Amino acid sequence: MAETIILASESLSVETMLANAGVAAEVDAADLDDAAMEAPLQRSGTSPEDVALILAETKAVEVSGRRPGALVLGCEQTLALGDEILHAPADMEGARRRLLLLSGKAHQVNSAAVLARDGAIVWHEVGTASIVMRRLDPRFIGRNLAQAGDAALQSAGAYRIDGPGIQLIEKIEGDCFTILGLPLLALLVELRRLGAIDG
Question: Whose CB among 15, 29, 58, 196 lies 3.0–4.6 Å from 191's, allowing a Cys bridge?
């Protein structure tokens, strides 16, 4: 019998992916300050992949500690240009500058997923995708952002591949689920192994 997964992250994209995959999930977001947790990790030189994993682990463990017996999924994503983690722009001018920064370059998206039960981690995975941006004309950036609207401000890269932002991309190495926020295929394998979903 399928088990309801507790999602410890407030991510509409992850919720949608789970629902579309037929995985029942209930949101019970961790009460944590991501920025406060991330800052010392960055200062200590922690890799963007490990930052995503540590934050996802912290979320999963925090929620599973107060949901006895439940299988809890913690998720976190980082977008990195080299070793620098980028965050969602505050406004459209910030989004324009972000796309100019990424123009013609490769950047990485790291999506971590962690399963925990009763405060203990039972599984984890970090999926990484490399995205190469086309060389972008500044006028096209403006038109693309106008078309994307506020959705551009909800992503560290100032684009979404499931919207007009796909036109900014030259090449992707890795799977689209990772870019949307979850290493979904690996998660489904583990949920089947645990008997949490029908297999």
Answer: 196
